[in-house]
Amino acid sequence: MNKITLLYDFLLEEGGLERVMITQTKHLSKDHHVTASFATINARLRTLFPENVTLTEHDGTFNNNTLKIIHSFLNINSLKKYKDTRLFISHSFICTRLANWMKKKYKIPYAVFLHHPPNFLYFKGDIKEWGYDTGRKVAMATGITFGPLLRAIDRRVVREADKVFVNSYYTKRRIEKIYGIDATVIYPTLPHKNFSIKKEKDTDYIFNKYNLKKYIFCTGRLIPDKKYEWLVKALPFIQDKEIELVISGRINKDYEYFIRNIAIKNGTMHRIKFLGFVPDEDLIALFNRAELFAYPSPEEDFGMVPVEAMACGCPVVAWGDNAGPSETVIHSVNGYLAHPYDLQDFATKIQQTLDEDFKTKHKKEISKTVEKFKEENQIPTLLKEIESIKNKNIL
User: Fold this and answer.
1) In which band, very low, low, confident or very high, does the pLDDT at 138 lie, cut at 50, 70 and 90?
2) How far is CA 393 from the centre of its chain?
3) Residue 246 forms beta bridges with which residues?
4) At what angle do helices 65-74 and 93-106 cross, to 10 degrees?
5) Burial of 391 (0-12, 13-18, 19+ CB in 10 A)
6) Is the dihedral of CA 8, 9, 11, 16 positive or negative?
7) Both ends of the chain: CA-CA distance in Å?
8) Can you give the pTM of this predicted structure?
9) How sure is the predictor about 394, in pLDDT bands with cuts at 50, 70 and 90?
10) What is the 3-state secondary structure (H, E, C) of the chain?
11) CA 311 – CA 121 distance, rounded (Å)
């Protein structure tokens, strides 16, 4: 059986990129022996991957996560133990560089899945906001110090890949501009079929469990560059003064304090609830019973969470900035796109959604608009392209 190895820098959280890798391994492992290799792994997350997928670290030289990642970059032989693999699929700059070396040394082809150009090399937005933790600070300092050299390496190893995939047409345009190549778009897919419209009697419990009333919902990676504070700043402009803003997801204490301080200053703290991490069952119920889902992230490369919300029949308000959500949110069909980055207009779109009783009237239609993001409508393209690489290289 042909061996395929998927590569990334770390498995430390269950984010959108990690879910893409999980889905890819699930389908590829049906006809291949699949390994998912990382510089560092949180053992708690091993169970996320299919049982027939081998999960391992590039090497075990260090115990510290940051040092493991740095070592994987400096040690060009990090993937040498995989010289019997027949194809690499890289999900990061560091891993693409390693896969490129393996191709030169052992003639092993590699594909690249670019979720976005490496942020530490191609900054967009506020650099300080992006570098909010130790790992990102190290990456940011590296990008600033060695940027020209690393960008040259990055462009070369991406251009020399046998195939490049991207997660949206927004990312495709960025890739064309930076690398001068034509990439294939394969959208991330809904994690499972449970993200769907549920009967009210099956989701009524959510109001008592979290002490909720009528609410606007948001969830995701609660980090500074996603701009969740914008929702708090927009809240006073919403005419409905009874509606609550419910936020779920793990959040850094400093960032939560920052958001709470804004809410205290503008007098909206009593209308905001932080739920912390919630299990998928509750997340689906929260999507189902929310009046709408508010997504404040600017220039998002794709944005899976709005798709999950719409699968549950929940309309979305996001920015019409021609980024990822502009490909999923269809203005006045499954939500509204606000003028970037006008908080008053964002609040107006929220109020319009409420005034029109948009969710009640269009729930089923909203859910149907995200059919194309189901696995059966995206994965066949990936498998076909993988077969093309195999045939080209006579695996």
Assistant:
1) confident
2) 31
3) 217, 273
4) 40
5) exposed
6) negative
7) 10
8) 0.93
9) low
10) CCEEEEEEEEECCCCHHHHHHHHHHHHHCCCCEEEEEEEEECHHHHHHCCCCCEEEECCCCCCCHHHHHHHHHHCCCCCHHHCCCCEEEECCHHHHHHHHHHHHHHCCCEEEEECCCCCCCCCCCCHHHHCCCHHHHHHHHHHHHHHHHHHHHHHHHHHCCCEEEECCHHHHHHHHHHHCCCCEECCCCCCCCCCCCCCHHHHCHHHHHCCCCCEEEEECCECHHHCCHHHHHHHHHCCCCCCEEEEECCECHHHHHHHHHHHHHCCCHHHEEEEECCCHHHHHHHHHHCCEEECCCCCCCCCHHHHHHHHCCCCEEEECCCCHHHHCCCECCCEEEECCCCHHHHHHHHHHHHHCCHHHHHHHHHHHCCHHHCHHHHHHHHHHHHHHHHHHCCC
11) 34
- In terms of phi and psi (left: phi > 0; alpha: psi -120 to 50; beta: otherwise), the region of 220 is left
CATH topology of domain 200-372: Rossmann fold (3.40.50)
Rounded mean pLDDT, 15-26: 93
Q: What percent of the chain has pLDDT over 70?
A: 97
Q: Taking a C-beta distance cutoff of 8 angstroms, is the pair 34, 28 a contact?
A: yes
CA 100-103-104 angle, to 5 degrees, is 90
Instruction: Check for a shared fold between 3-189+375-392 and 200-372.
Output: yes
Q: How far is the C-alpha of 329 from the C-alpha of 307, rounded, in Å?
A: 8
The whole-number pLDDT of residue 126 equals 67
Classify domain 3-189+375-392 at the CATH superfamily level: Glycogen Phosphorylase B; (3.40.50.2000)
- Rounded-to-integer distance, Cα 3 and Cα 108, Å: 11
What pLDDT, on a 0 to 100 scale, did the predictor assign at position 395?
A: 44
d(CA 19, CA 144): 30
Domain boundaries, the chain: 3-189+375-392, 200-372
Mean pLDDT for the stretch of residues 70-88: 92
Average pLDDT over residues 260-276: 97
Rounded CA-CA distance 288/283 in Å is 9
Q: CA–CA separation, 38 vs 98, rounded Å?
A: 12
At 337-371, the pLDDT tens digits run 999 999 999 999 999 999 999 999 999 999 999 99
